[in-house]
Batch of 2 targets.
Target 1
Amino acid sequence: MSAAAAVVALVQLVVVTALAPLLVGLMRQVRARSEGRVGAGLMQPWRDLRKLLAKDPVRAEGASWILVAAPVVLLASSLIVAALLPLVAAVPLPLVPNDLFVVVSLLLLGTVAVALLGLDSGTAFGGMGSSRHMTVAALVEPTVLVAVYALSVPVGSSTLALIVRARLQAPSLIAAPVSLIAVIALAIVVIAETGRLPVDNPATHLELTMIHEAMVLESSARDLAWLELGSWIRLASLLGLMGNLLAPWGVSTGAAPLSLVVGVVTLTVKLAVLGAGLSLGEVFMAKLRLFRVPELLAGSFVLAFLAVTASYLLA
Amino acid sequence: MSAVQAGLLAQAGLSGAAVVLALVLGTARARATACGTLCALSAGFGVLTGALAVSGRTGAVLVSMALPPGHLVLAPDRLGGVFVVVVSAVMCLVSVYAIGYARTGSTGSRTSWVALALFGLGMQMVPAAADLVAFLFAWELMAVASTALVLIDQARSPAVRSAALWYAAMTQLSFLLVVAGLSVLAASTGSDTFAVMSAGHLSGATASVAFVLLGLGFGTKAGVVPMHVWLPRAHAEAPSHVSAAMSAAMVTLGVYGLVLVCVRLLPAGPSWWGVTLVAFGALSALYGILQASVASDIKRLLAYSTTENVGLMVLALGSSVLLRASHAPAVAGVALVACLLLVVSHATFKVTLFLGAGSVLHATGERDLDRLGGLGPRMPVTATGFAVGSLAAAALPVSCGFVAEWTLLQALIHGARVQDRLVTVVMPLAVAVVALTAGLALLTFVKAFGIGFLARPRSDTAAGARESPAPMRVAMLAGAAVVVVLGLVPGPLGVALARSVGVRSVTTVGLGGLDLPVVGALLDPVALCLVAGVVALPVLVASLALARRHPSRSTVLAWGNGGARVSPRMQYTATSYAEPLMRVFDDALQPSRDVQVTHLAESRYLVERVEYRQHLGDVVEERVYRPVIRLAGRVGMAARHLQNGSIHRYLAYSFLALIAVLVAASL
């Protein structure tokens, strides 16, 4: 059991790390094509990473160890989340089950690392990005917990692997109104958490509208590479989780090689579909004014809360 | 003589010796060393005694008195033992810290040390008390000594005197309510010992009256909203080691009182008690963390965070009462253990944070985050302590704060499975409140640590800061170590806490992890760390390999967006950091802003100066307390007309009083 779980975690780690830059490349390509541009190709994020890793980092005098540590912490936290979440297979590690609260707190550890990085630079933009980032994170957290809580009600456990397994065995759960509401709420917060439109614009070059990009302005070379890779892995993991909640088919329930291959292939397909869809949606959307974002998040919270109470009162 | 007895006597003896030495010794430095050591030893014996009591050893000390009822009884049971350990451990750190902190000025005065020794002794005796009189005696000793300690710095500013006045009024109010509540219990059970009272099985209206009185009394001491108004003042204005003791230990005893009532004295409370506690807890948690997230005074921020944490404890206790009333004793037990875990974790991280804040104050003379910054490289030990404390306060792994909040959330989400409409509505709301609180706590402590210790100094005093003396560093590091160890190996602590309240369903798992079989959840932080280590290893290896091939270059102006690093004034401050949040929660916080723009005389289109002022008060204080105080003032003024100094009028009063008595007697 534990060996199988370790194999699954390792496979997920490798697959998600390999796929995450490709997913971002795909999303940029879809966006470019739908805007009438040629685009840089699927492999461009990988090429960017290689370029960044081959450079000498430039660090400002007086920058503290946070500048070096924060990117590593973000990347590590994203990698652990990728290993723990039920992406390729729903096989929890013994002693470290992918308990919802643990996963959220690991994600938050990465969030905090980047927020401290923004403050450490001692520039106005870093502080601004950090402040906005933490405000959004603070308002996102209740929705995340309540939404997955709603999903956990029919299963009786906050372990994500068990939730995905239950949905695999009883597909009627997926189409239940309660679960749909919860998934919509979760989708909104995943968008906010990964810094996509309409909450944050990942492609912006205007500092005043930046959230995530403003915090990493001071980072360069491998520091920046780790930050980029970390946030891409985070995006891929959360989209993969969404995909498995919406369409759990193909997720392996063991560590047999064939079923793992099926799991990897279906995960790739799900990521591609969700990524392309998200990207297409973004083409038609403008960034929301910062102080309208709380309204969006409040809306998603209401949905999540509705899902929880409905799941008890209608049951 | 049993070991518990010996421990109790040793505590009292050492504290007494500290009082004598504080009065005898002439120089402040000698006083600090001698009294600090004795107080720390007394607290150390407190930890031992409490640990013995937790492990099931018993022993009683009878103090004879000339007045009835004849004697005071000190005999800690298991639950009391837990709190004796918590309070004593906090006092031990605080005493060691004070050796370095309280050796000059008014904080190192005779009064200060006498009060600190008595304060510590009082707090260690409260949870050891086995009868009403001993409890109230220790409680009042703690209250009076702490009032004196809040007042120590009174020469510094009028704010200190005002804080002490608020504190004295609220703490005595709390005492009166506790006396009234315990009297109701004693009168209806006919005994003044807790053991007999809890065997009385009171229920109905009498029990509810006692519950309300005691809830208000202990809630005031614990700083539950809306009785929290003394807390941000007293914690901010008291010397920092006293703030640490008050926040981490004294407030904890308010929670002890509530646990004592709900678990031992009146164990069969109806569900409305639970709902009331959950409501007050949720209100305190949200209001406390909102105020903390926008505060820029570091000690005020920590004080409001205390209100938040107490709110979470009360919420956990309330859900335990509610679940027990809904016939789900197993989950109720988990909620109760969550409450105690929150108590322990709050005490450890809050003492570390307050000691860290005190160290910053000691080094810079500044409490205002807007004027700090860049302290990390200048005060590495303080920064480490504060960072670890912040990690726990933000409930992030690996820290005891995370374990406690995880247990609470597990209890809440599984509690809602009970077939009871009330429970299924209350529990999701409680989860949402806890989650929002956790989110805001994250922002609050990123702000506190990031603005205070990272970036560049925002004032000259911050730029010239130097690390604190050794005793202070030792105390902070010890506190931080406990936070991390309890976060890594929560299993044994969880089991001990569960046994102290008679819950059997908590066990250890794996490498010191916590297992809650009732709710089907387990947490093994060591295993999590091992996984994290395995995953992070390749990243670290790659980073190191790359660092050898591509060493970093250092420049004055890296990516400063067109020449940023000119003035530290351009950085974000604590106020600006919380500004978006302030806007979001504008209605709840009601800040008042004042912007004055001065134009140049030549043209209205050119601005000479912009003045921005923002004041953020406490909504509860302004809306509830101020009107009451004004009313009391008006009544007092009106009453002055009765006494105008005329002897004729006073004679008339006596005459009228005599007639009234005669008439009343003849009826």
Target 2
Amino acid sequence: MSFDDWILALHVLSAFAYVGGIVLFWILVVAVRRTDLPEDTIRMGPVGRVGNASVGIGAGGTILLGIFLAFSYGGYNIWDGWIIAAIILWFVAAALGRRTGEAYMEGMNKALELQSAGQTGPNAELGALNRTQSGVVLHALASIVVLLILIDMIWKPGA
Amino acid sequence: MSVLATVRPDSWNFPVFLHVLGAMILVGAVLTGASTLAFARGDNRMLRLGYWSLLAVGLPGYVIMRIGAQWAASREGFDEEGAPEPTWLGIGYLIADIGLLVFLIALIVGGVGVYRLKTGKGAGLLKGTMILSLLLLAAFIVAIWAMSGKPD
């Protein structure tokens, strides 16, 4: 395996970490909708941190190693249309992902606030925050954009 | 040449896309299952969530991945009689086949564990599912490396 092959393998592994993290958050999005208890909400925190690490490492690895490959890999250039499209989509996905995280952190923060106040029973406001519609829409949009990046990477339109 | 770096004939792209998408769903589900079971600390709701992540998301992901793999291999002529099997493809098949066996064992053990949660037992069995899931994740990393880096 050449150095470029190793970088490509790490780039693809990063993509798997990125999408794997998005899948993890879909499962948490569905799971957290069913609870209005602070304890149950807080219990999902560590799993969310695994997702954050996976998305963070994955997103960082894909963009950095991807740009490296665009310069290094023979036959491709950073100004190729499909590579520029992927970079733009990556930034859109990152922005949507950040806003999704903010939407769901409202529920987690509320749960922590309730727990520190000694309120352990069901809470309607927490339930509403956990069932955030904007969070679901943002996560769906981020997922669609990442799916478009995958399609772009496989079909390479114009290459 | 490498999976994502190659410009392939258009007719190969959809099977490859299906294969990669299924594999990504599988990896995400196993990551979720393993981490949820690891952080459950005996909480039944989290134990069930971890198990159902594997069953309801991971298993369909595996099926999509495997169908895409066979379809792509067929399009690329790897399943023709006498066609040479590259090392990376052999690694992929080996991990997919042994991985399925391990995955099914994890699901059966976990299924019994989830059933026994009703009587206050089963957490130990689900710990076994968590360990098998972590093993699967390690194997998937090797498979992804082999399929994308294409070692000789």
